[in-house]
Amino acid sequence: MISNANELYKIIDSVLCPEGFIRKKDVYYQDHSDLIVAFAVGKAEGAGHYSSVMGCFYKQLLEQKTTFPKFFKSQLRYCLDDFVDEDLVNRVFDLENNEFKGDERELLIKEFVELYVIPFLK
Question: How far, in Å, CA of 46 to CA of 10, rounded?
């Protein structure tokens, strides 16, 4: 059962890193010919709640050429809850929410990343 940020990132790492994403702090990046795509998972307001956002940077529009641009400067951005029920996403990414039993939370996070994040970013 996920109880802290390190465990959360390990779960996400297990799905995104084999797909070629590189994690820098709380953002996963992947470089493509014309753009850089990213998935950010960071501590949100609230004790154990994390937010997730995905987006891209068009290389032609970047002020500075870098492999890992600051996520808040992305030109296109969507939240995971634009694709999945907002309440469910909030509950799953609230690590202090104890409603999930066994590895339910881990399975849901993996499912979100596999079914929504990766296809969106590819």
Answer: 21
Confidence at residue 102, expressed as pLDDT on a 0 to 100 scale: 92
The model's pLDDT over 30-47, given as tens digits with 9 standing for 90+, comes to: 999 999 999 999 988 766
Tokens, residue 116: 């929504």
- Intra-chain end-to-end CA distance of the chain, in Å: 29
What are the b/e assignments for 89-105, b being 16+ CB within 10 Å? bbebbbbeeeebeeeeb
Going by C-alpha positions, the residue among 19, 14, 22 that lies closest to residue 69 is 22
Q: Where are the domains of the chain?
A: 5-121
DSSP sequence for the chain: ---SHHHHHHHHHHHHGGGT-EEETTEEEEE-SSEEEEEEEEE-SSSSBEEEEEEEEEGGG-SS--SS--GGG-SEEEEGGGTS-HHHHHHHTBTT-----TTHHHHHHHHHIIIIIHHHH-
